[in-house]
Write a structure and sequence with these properties.
The chain is an alpha+beta fold. It has one domain: Alpha-Beta Plaits. Helices cover 36% and strands 29% of the residues. The protein is built from three helices and six strands; from the N terminus they run βαβαββββα. The strands form two sheets. A four-stranded antiparallel sheet has the order 1-2-6-3. Strands 4-5 form a two-stranded antiparallel sheet. The mean pLDDT is 87.
Length: 119
């Protein structure tokens, strides 16, 4: 019996490059999740084949904020995050950036049409 996870894609430049280069998708997962539950949930939710999973736990960092007027400092901490790096079988994709890629293809098509009409 597997537990259903909420898989939140990590959208950063580094994660986007990993998708394009190595077919590795980065998800923020629950802190109690393990590799098996992440694999089962990715395969069931996106209908893809997972070949490898790496998990990284990033503890929160200490932060300090100083008020301008009173010069009192407030100490705090950022949230801890657990990331799962999911490698998919060659040829499988997850449509995280499908809307952006479709928009880019549409813009390319428009620019080709405009450049062809200027000649």
């Amino acid at each position: 019996m597997s537990k259903t996870l909420f898989l939140k894609p990590r959208l950063s430049e580094k994660a986007y490059q990993a998708i394009q280069k190595d077919n590795v998708y980065v998800f923020v997962v629950d802190k109690l999740a393990n590799k098996q539950t992440v694999k089962e949930n990715v395969e069931s939710q996106f209908k893809v084949s997972v070949t490898n999973i790496r998990v990284a736990y990033l503890p929160g960092k200490n932060k300090r904020h100083v008020h301008k007027e009173s010069h009192k400092s407030i100490n705090g901490k950022t949230s801890s995050v657990k990331k799962a790096f999911v490698t998919l079988k060659k040829g499988d994709t997850i449509p995280i950036f499908a809307v952006e890629e479709a928009e880019k293809e549409r813009q390319d098509k428009i620019s080709k049409t405009l450049s062809g009409s200027k000649k």
